[in-house]
Structures are given as structure tokens and as C-alpha cells.
Amino acid sequence: MVDREILDNLVVSIRKYLKELQDADDIDWETFVQDNRSRRFVERVLQILVESMIDLGQHIIADQGFREPNTYKDVFRILVEEGVLEEKKLTVYEKIASFRNILVHHYEGIDNNIVFGIFKKNLSDIEDFLNQIFNWLEHKQS
To answer: Domain span at residue 52?
Structure first.
């Protein structure tokens, strides 16, 4: 059974990071590209947010005894295979995992357009992820 305390702590963290990004409405494109502090804030919070999503997925996988993931993308694949996440969103979640790897391992090659686009247009994918997790938990417990 999924340890709700661990899961709840991860969800609280994810929601906190989402709120921080949503509240950063003073960071427009010009600020983002000209102000290193603003850009680094967005990059780092996105990185932590994605890592929290992966941690939540790994927690569910371990607790449920699902097959062990080989990569961060695989975490999302397994959650789709096991009916935790919808298959139609798999590509989105795989891109999220790839984005995390780019942020962490290829700092010099980060595309500001992509980071800013995620920051301004794609945070709903993370909210959708949480909703799918809660829907799965709700059905699992009934």
C-alpha cells in the first residue's frame, strides 16, 4: 500500500513549487533572458519540481511492486503500464523527464525558449499529473 504520508509530503512539495512559479508573474521574457537570477530561479524550481514528480512516481512503483525503472522516462512509462497515468499523456511526461536531464547535465545547451515556454505554458501538465495520481489512489482505495 502506498505510504500516504510520504505521498502527501511529495504532493505538498510539488504544489509549493508550482505556486512559486505561478506567483513569479513578474518574470516576463525580457526579464528572463536579461536577469540571470530570474532565469536561474525558474530553471532550478522547474528542476526540483520535476524531480519531485519522479520521486512520487518511484515511491508508487516501489510500494506497489511494479517493475523497476531503468531511467526517469521509464518511471512514467511504468505508471502508464500500470494504469496510474493515462497513456495519452505519456509523451508529455517523457519530455518532462528529458527536460530535467537537460537542466541537470547539459547546462550550456539549455534553450531559453523551451524553459520559458514550460514556465509560462506547461505548468498545467504537472497539475494534471497530480490529478491522475489522486484519481488512481481514489480508485485503488475503493
So the answer is: 4-141
CATH number at 123 reads 1.20.120.580
pTM attached to this predicted model: 0.91
What is the per-residue burial (b if ≥16 Cβ within 10 Å, else e) of 76-104?
bbbbbeeebbeeebbebbbbbbebbebbe
Nearest-angstrom CA–CA distance, 60 and 125: 19
Angle at 51 between CA 130 and CA 104, to 5 degrees: 145
The number of distinct structural domains making up the chain is: 1
pLDDT tens readout for residues 15-74: 999 999 999 999 999 999 999 999 999 999 999 999 999 999 999 999 999 999 999 999
